[in-house]
Structures are given as C-alpha cells and as structure tokens.
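Q: What does the assembly look like in three dimensions?
Context provided by user:
Components: two
Sequences:
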Amino acid sequence: MASSIENNNEKLTLKSSDGEEFLVEKHVALQSTLLQNMLDSDCSSADVIPLPKIDARTLALVLGYCKKHADASSSKQGELNSFDSEFLKDMDMGALFNLVLAANFMEIKGLLDIAAQKIADTIKDKPHQEVREIFHVENDYTPEEEAAVREENRWAFEGFP
Amino acid sequence: MDGKDILGLPNTPLPLSQEKKSRPQKDFQRKPDGISREVYALTGGLAPLMPVSGSRGSGGGGAEGPTVGAVVVLPNELVEVEVLTRLPARSLMRFKCVSNLWRSTITQYPSFSKIHRARHSPSRAGGFFIIYPEADDSLRCFYATTLPSSSCPGDGESVLVPYQFTPTASNSCSSSNKYYGATDVVKGLFCLYAGNRSWLCNVSTREIRELPFSSDLENAVAFTYCLGFASTSKEYKLVKMCLLPFYRTKDVISFHGLIFEILTMGKDASWRRPWDILEAPAVGLELGRTSVYIDGLLCCWHRGGYTLIVFNFQDESFQKIYPPPKSSGSIYFGNGSLLLQFEGHFALVRGLHRRLVNHELEIWVLELNNYEQGSYEWINRIIEVPCDFPVRGCSFVGSLPLPTGDQMLLTGLVEFINKKSAVPVYSFDHAKGKFEKLVIGNFLSWSPSSQVASICKKDIEKFRVYYYEEDITPLSDLVSNDKDLSLTSATCTKNKKKKKKKKKKKSSRTTTLSD
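A: Here is the predicted structure of the complete assembly.
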C-alpha cells in the first residue's frame, strides 16, 4: 500500500513536546494515519517532525504500540490482543488520557479504541462523584436537581454511595 | 465536530511557526474548517495539555515524567465520543448525575445513542429474563433480570438480581385488565400490558412509558400483545390480538372472533385495525400458547392447532406454515407443541410439555428459505442434555442465541420446591455439552409459603429468555404521539420527518432469518 516509499528501511524522526527525538522506521510510523498522510503528501522523511502535543513518555508508549502492531503478522491476532491488554495494564488515568489524546491526534484507531475502552472499563463501576473528579467536570447541579436525577435512576445506584 | 474542539485548542487563528517547517500546506489533507491537522502538528508553541489547578484526581501516577504538576484533562468531545459511548447503560444512567451537560449528552442526542448502540452490538449483549405473576390479580409487578454478560467466564453460580417494573397507577384500568403480561423483548425494548393499557419499556435504561389506550373489549376471553420491529421502515409495532367468544356482524352472530389492533410507534396516534373481524387470521389464543418473535416475524399457532401462522411486521401479512410431517409414528405436532427460537429459527419441540422426560430433546427447525415465495422446510435435530436434567425436574425455557453459540435455558422445578427459595436456572451449551447454573434471586411473590409451589409452577412456565442489545435511545424518540414529551431536541423531530418520508417508499421485506 505504501508504494510511494522506495526504501523500506527509511527512518524518520519525531520530536516530542519536551524536545526528545525518536527515530522511527517508516513502516512503524505508518500505523498513524496522520503520519501516513504527511508522508503521502510528500514530506521528506529527512525532516524532524515535531509533535508538540505529545510528551516523550507518551510518545515512547505510542511508538511501542505501533512497532508491535506493525511488526506482527496479521495471523497473530491473539498475540496482539494479549500484548494490548498487557500494554495497558497498571496504567494510571493520567497516562491513559495522554494516550487517548495522542492516539486521537496521531489518528491511530486501534490504540484509541483500546485506551478509551480501558478508561471506560475502569470507571464503569465507580461512583459518579469520583468520575466527576477524574474528568474534572464541574458539577452544575443544585443538590436538589442532583437528588431528583438520582431518584429517577434509582435502580442504577444500588450499591453506590 | 470541529477539529479544534477535539484538540482543546483556542478558537483563534494559529500563528505559524517561524521554523523551516512552514512547508506547503496546500498539499495537506484539509479539514472542513480549513485548517489541516498537520498544521497543528507543525506549528508547535502550544501547551500540549491544559493544566488544571487544584488537587490531583485519584489517578495518581504523578511521579512519571513530564505530566508532573499538570493534570491531564480530556476535552469533552473525546470524553463523550470515545469514553462514554463505551460504557454500559447502567453506568450511563448513574453518570447522568455527574453534570447537566453529561445528562443531556446521554439522554438527548440521537447521535450519541447511535454510537453507543454500535459499540454495544451483539458481542456485548446479555440475556434477559422476565416473569410475571398471575395468581394475585392485585399484583401488577413485572420482574426482569439480566444475565451476566457473555464476556464473563461463567464458572460457578451467578446470582441474578431481579428488577421490578411498575407501571403507572392502574386507576383507570379497563374491566378486561385481568389479562396482563409482557411481550417478547425486541431489540432491547418490550411492552407490558394490562387490558387495554400498555407500556413500552427499555431493558437497558429501565425507562417505562405508557402507550395510547387500545379498545376496551369487555367480553374478551383472551388477549395477547406482541411487539415487533419492521426493519425496512425501522419502526416498532405493537400488535394486540383479542379473542371475543362471539360477535355480531349485521344480523349474524358468529363465534370466536379475533380483533387485531396495531400501533406503529412514532407514527400512529391511536390503534388501528388492519383487518375486518372476518378476515383476521385465526391465531390460537385460547390455550395461552406462546408465540415466538424473530427478526420482524412472529410465529404462532393457528386456532385449530394444526398449522402455524407467521406474521410479518413489515408488510403486516400472514403466511400459513404446516408443521413437520408425522413421520416416525410417535411424533405428534400440533395443539400447543412448544414453539421456540433455536439457532435463529423458529422451531418446535416434540411432545406437549416443556418438562424434560428423557435426556434427548427432539427439535424440528423451520428454515424459511425463501419467505416471499412461501417456501420452507423442517430440519430435524436431536439435542442431548445431561442425564440428571430430567431427574431434577427441569423444564425447558428456551434457547438463547449468543455469539458463541446457542445456550439452552432450563429451570429446575424439583430443586426449587425442595429449597423453597430461588429457582435455579441452567444454561446449557449443547455444542460443547457444558452447562452452568444460574440462580434467579428471590422474587417478592415467591416468598416461601404454603402455596408457593403451585404459584411458581405456573410462573416457571412463563419464564422467557431473550437476548438483547443495549439501546439507550429515550422512549420519547419512539413514541411521538405524546406532544408534551417531544422534548426540546430539534434533531428528534427532524429524524421523525425523515422516517416518515422513507416509509412511503416501499414496504417489501428485506429481513432474513439470521443463522
């Protein structure tokens, strides 16, 4: 599919928001639709591509994901699935948020899916007050309004404070 | 959605970087807002994340790298589209309390419920039970419970917690309200009914909403309501069949007339009668036999008990189906042989009762190869169940289609009577020969008492099980005939208009029975 690329071993350099540079093989970078579009639209790979929205730690994770998925043959779906779950295991909310932001920005659908799903799985059994804090949502309800909404959905609150 | 919103960027023109990388932007794929994403990537100079003052959330992890001191915040659009749409309905109902904005996202936007539905389609579905007590006329409670989701490995027992659906106060119930019950679950919705009143309920959100009254037929002797989905016009239809012991047309008095009434949700303001009483198909209601709904088709017994009738919800037509031939002597079909869903097809179980008598179930599966031309065939299947199922007094409830294969559901009556607490339900995977025990929690009406066994025996017969897909679409979007509830959302109204236009086009059947 990447027929425009003559040399398969070509590498490109990505620069994180905090100035760290990452040398990436082209086929790994192609996991990102954003980078793919850039390469297709004739950006020379000799340049350093700055990613001002992604810090080094997140970028390292993202590229780890891309490398695994670019290198794995399509027949090893099971192996990739276990890699994905291991990859996100023990990751805290901040890191997951960063991953979602990076995957959304770099347009890496698979990574966006698993990271967002992980966030959803983590919060689904949490009380809503805690969820409010996690997402820094301002509570614009009056106590009465909140109580009314809660009463309407009483069944969903069984077992919750 | 605006790309800038997704990225949480200020809504101001971006200063292009002075670096050499202010390269030819015209080559970049442009976003609708005219600013290519690549420009963002190349411009630099913007803070990567929005720092938020205040204490850190419980997430922790402050020690790592560059996020120290700054709290990561996901832009609201990403939270809504990527995270909230992946949550189960129960969590969403709870998170309506997070903020007004979250509540309106969850409840008012058709596009949100559409993405949610797409993300929760078949593979994440659970099963569903419903039961309704019949013994006490004053009791108008309907219990439902969901099976553990199919993704959980089902080892050991799982306790199912029943939920009580309580229709609005039955002050103006008709005289015929002794006929009450619940319809099949169709795409996550079902209806409760009592006499001429009916309620639409959503399994996922537990929302319940009354529908327009149907005719009050005082001398009716049997009633049933059936819910179905017409997939071409994308409409839910509720069909009411009501049996009159006799009726008068002009000067003639005839016996056993069936009144058919249909309500198309979001379209009909009131119930309509598609057929004259003399033309209506003679569906057998007297014996309270079950009907089975699959993918826009409803199968029920003809009153005579020797043919089946298949009703098509899309074009509201009927087709007659003859049961399998009485081949090997002892096989007898008709008059109430158990009708059920098996691997996505209508099927009949040999014999007259649900109760297992031996460890082999003989099932005849109806293949509607070419429904439009009326061709069909019956395929014989023998299912072996574990030997102790008949010993435990198991009754066959039905077959639950799951992505991993059908699960046959059985209840253990003998065990229940001995324990007097909860009714055990077994889920049996006939392909693998494995079964697991699920336990239904205590239902109010089932508290141990002297009559408990006799009440429950009847109720167990009414156990039904469904597979459903989560759908958080508010019922007001389906029931447009309550004017006060058409809400503020202009999109809803638009959608309805569109739907109506579509309806005019054609009503040919495009659904096929899934495999």
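Follow-up: DSSP finds eight helices and three strands in chain A.
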